[in-house]
Amino acid sequence: MGASGLTPIKHFGSWVSRSNNTVYQASTDGIACGVAENVSYPQVRGMSDGSNPPTTIRMVTNHYGSSGAYSGGCLPVKQGHYWKITGATYVYWLPLEP
């Protein structure tokens, strides 16, 4: 809490590139995003929880298209939790900062 007794406002930090199918631990609250680009029948999955590796599916996106299809989504991640995105061409982390 701030000096006035109010919780400080948080803002988004800078986008950070991450790797597909890799487990990360969140040092802050944030949002993990994954995008599959130019893939046949893409499915992007996001998992997050307190286990390493995470097993709770928090996001799934599908696109039933031919070659060149796109799919993607984002999931909120709590500070200290582990997260992983699979099936993505690009993975990004967007931290919340004080």
Could you provide a short overview of the structure?
This protein has strands at residues 11-12, 16-18, 24-25, 30-39, 43-49, 57-62, 69-77, 82-86, 90-97. The chain is mostly beta strands and 98 residues long.
- Along the chain, the helix and strand elements come as EEEEEEEEE
CATH topology: Jelly Rolls
CATH architecture designation: Sandwich
Helix tally?
0
Helix content range: under 10%
Low-confidence stretches: none
Radius of gyration: 15 Å
pLDDT averaged over residues? 90
Major sheet: size, sense and barrel closure? 5 strands, antiparallel
Class, according to the CATH hierarchy? Mainly Beta
Number of domains: 1
Oligomeric assembly: single chain
State the separation between the terminal residues, measured CA to CA.
11 Å
Structural class, judged by helices and strands?
Answer: mainly beta
Shape: elongated
